[in-house]
């Protein structure tokens, strides 16, 4: 069953058409990556799912209910983490979460327990430090705590890792990965390695449309090509190898001593390359296999 | 209604934590102290600048001088200080993205606007009461006369006009994207309104008469009842301003 279904969604700002025809669905319990270049309309899509922006055309269904602008009925299923979460700086994390809980209508008997629980989940100290004294990473974790406060069915994260340092990013992605199977997550980002690390599915938005949609493992198999890189000791070895091998058509001689060869779908050229090296009695300086990545899929999609 | 109470409480705490309420209170207490004191000292100050003998012609100050200072300070400084303190009350929240979390958690947009409106009305009312009480105390101490007979009616007119101006503050802040633009909108409204008092033929229907005729109301030279239309228009303008804020905020992108 799908947690979110977006059908033929369109949105323009003035004369500029941002979303031309966006259609995709997010299966329940999946961690769904939403990739695209900066300014392509990822945040616009997120805000429309939350009913914070009006659409020009199309509809969004969340858990069987249609999203309507300005109405927050479907938001009771959703936790939202914006790209730059902003908090009242004079409050502590606990005070802020208590206010959020009160606004969302949480029973007062549950508030303290739930606040303690989410602070523990995001590993944030429950002390008297004002939010004004928080680092960017701490604010991001507090944003995550806010989003998870009501134990939502769906968590929407809009570029949450783009401004974090490597440690903060790792910590954040670990928290996200821990939600797998329990919560449906939409993880919007232009950092493809982050998506590849935690998501099982991905949609790539480009030119106002979803260009690629599916399981990351399937997409990398079908869309991207495996490649091999051979570094030779000198250019003579490289020339000798090119005479020996019958794979020059797919090769790309990058430098005087470096050769990159892309494998075509359904082909397996690794053994042949090693055999050709052996036949030519060449010992390369380096022989490396590159597995297809989401980046390859992405580059292919936005061509 | 529950959300409204929660958000009013949040707004009130915020006005304390950001020191806006404290600043307003301190300034208005100082006004309260200054009004009778200036009235008391003014003849002496003026007398010291005049040649010997001429100062004897200056009449002795009365409670009316103290209340003249009160209305002058409230309309020329007090209200303007409050406008400056609260001119970004809506735009600041929107510009910083503070509301996104709460709107996605189900906070109604009208609650945000109405609670901010109620806060600025509250701060104005408390500030006016503070100045009023301090001025009453010291005026009675310095000038124990009975010349200021219709004090409550005169102050009521000022209070109602202040509510209108505070409504314009919230509307201006909702319309604009920054505190400066909000300030310009409220400043423009105030300047145009003050200019409109030149047309004396309309004074009975002009809300700005409520801060122009205070001394007349105080001394009973004019009855506030004669300005019933101006009072009604003031209330209607407040409601229109609030409605505009609610409608515009509902359309704002967050």
Automatic annotation (TrEMBL), chain A:
Gene3D superfamilies recorded: P-loop containing nucleotide triphosphate hydrolases
CDD domains on file: ABC_DR_subfamily_A
Alphabetical keyword list: ATP-binding, Nucleotide-binding, Transport
Domain ABC transporter: from-to ranges: 4-232
Record InterPro entries: AAA+_ATPase (IPR003593), ABC_transporter-like_ATP-bd (IPR003439), P-loop_NTPase (IPR027417)
GO molecular function: ATP binding; ATP hydrolysis activity
Pfam family, one: ABC_tran
Family named by the database record: Belongs to the ABC transporter superfamily.
Protein name: ABC transporter, ATP-binding protein
Lineage: Bacteria, Bacillati, Bacillota, Bacilli, Lactobacillales
UniProtKB/TrEMBL annotation, chain B:
Keyword Membrane: yes
Regions that span the bilayer: 21-39, 77-99, 119-139, 151-170, 182-202, 227-249
Name of one Pfam family that matches: ABC2_membrane_2
Keywords, ordered alphabetically: Membrane, Transmembrane, Transmembrane helix
Superkingdom of the source species: Bacteria
MF term (GO), any: ABC-type transporter activity
Coiled-coil residues: none
Keyword check for Coiled coil: no
GO cellular component term, pick one: plasma membrane
Name used for this protein in its record: ABC transporter permease subunit
Organism the protein comes from: Lentilactobacillus hilgardii (strain ATCC 8290 / DSM 20176 / CCUG 30140 / JCM 1155 / KCTC 3500 / NBRC 15886 / NCIMB 8040 / NRRL B-1843 / 9)
């Amino acid at each position: 069953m799908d947690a979110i279904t977006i059908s033929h969604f369109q949105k323009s700002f003035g004369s500029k058409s941002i979303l031309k025809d966006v259609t995709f669905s997010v299966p329940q319990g999946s961690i769904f990556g939403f990739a695209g270049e900066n300014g392509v309309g990822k945040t616009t899509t997120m805000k429309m799912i939350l009913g914070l922006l009006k659409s020009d055309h199309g509809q969004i269904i969340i858990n069987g209910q249609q999203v309507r602008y300005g109405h927050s009925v479907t938001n009771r299923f959703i936790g939202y983490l914006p790209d730059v979460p902003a908090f009242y700086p004079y409050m502590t994390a606990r005070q802020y979460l208590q206010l959020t809980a009160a606004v969302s209508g949480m029973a007062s008997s549950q508030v303290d327990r739930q606040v303690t629980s989410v602070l523990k989940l995001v590993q944030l100290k429950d002390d008297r430090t004002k939010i004004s004294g928080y680092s960017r990473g701490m604010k991001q974790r507090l944003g995550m705590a806010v989003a998870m406060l009501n134990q939502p069915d769906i968590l929407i994260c809009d570029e949450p890792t783009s401004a974090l340092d490597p440690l903060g990013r790792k910590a954040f992605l670990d928290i996200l990965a821990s939600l797998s199977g329990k919560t449906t997550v939409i993880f919007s980002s232009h950092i493809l390695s982050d998506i590849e690390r935690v998501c099982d599915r991905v949609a790539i938005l480009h030119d106002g449309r979803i260009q690629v949609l599916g399981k990351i493992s399937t997409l990398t198999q079908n869309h991207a090509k495996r490649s091999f890189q051979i570094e030779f000791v000198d250019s003579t070895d490289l020339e000798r190898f090119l005479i020996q091998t019958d794979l020059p058509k797919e090769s790309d001689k990058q430098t005087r001593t470096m050769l990159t060869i892309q494998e075509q779908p359904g082909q397996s050229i690794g053994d042949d390359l090693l055999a050709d090296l052996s036949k030519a009695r060449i010992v390369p300086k380096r022989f490396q296999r590159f597995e297809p990545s989401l980046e390859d899929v992405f580059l292919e999609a936005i061509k | 209604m529950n959300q409204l109470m929660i958000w009013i409480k949040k707004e009130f705490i915020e006005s304390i934590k950001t020191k806006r309420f404290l600043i307003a209170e301190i300034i208005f207490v100082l006004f309260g102290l200054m009004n009778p004191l200036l009235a008391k000292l003014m003849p002496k100050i003026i007398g010291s600048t005049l040649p010997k003998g001429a100062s004897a012609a200056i009449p002795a100050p009365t409670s009316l001088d103290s209340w003249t200072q009160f209305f002058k300070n409230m309309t020329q400084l007090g209200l303007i200080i409050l406008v400056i303190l609260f001119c970004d009350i809506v735009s600041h929240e929107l510009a910083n993205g503070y509301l996104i979390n709460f709107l996605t958690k189900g906070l109604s947009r009208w609650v945000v606007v109405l609670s901010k409106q109620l806060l600025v009305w509250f701060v104005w009312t408390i500030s006016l009461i503070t100045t009023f009480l301090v001025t009453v105390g010291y005026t009675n101490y310095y000038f124990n006369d009975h010349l200021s007979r219709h004090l409550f009616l005169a102050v009521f007119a000022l209070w109602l006009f202040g509510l209108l101006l505070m409504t314009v503050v919230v509307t201006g802040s909702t319309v604009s994207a920054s505190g400066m633009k909000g300030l310009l909108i409220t400043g423009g409204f105030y300047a145009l309104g003050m200019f409109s008092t030149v047309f004396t033929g309309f004074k009975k229907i002009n809300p700005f008469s409520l801060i122009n005729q205070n001394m007349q109301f105080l001394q009973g030279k004019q009855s506030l009842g004669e300005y019933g239309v101006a009072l009604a228009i003031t209330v209607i303008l407040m409601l229109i301003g609030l409605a505009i804020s609610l409608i515009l905020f509902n359309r704002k992108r967050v």
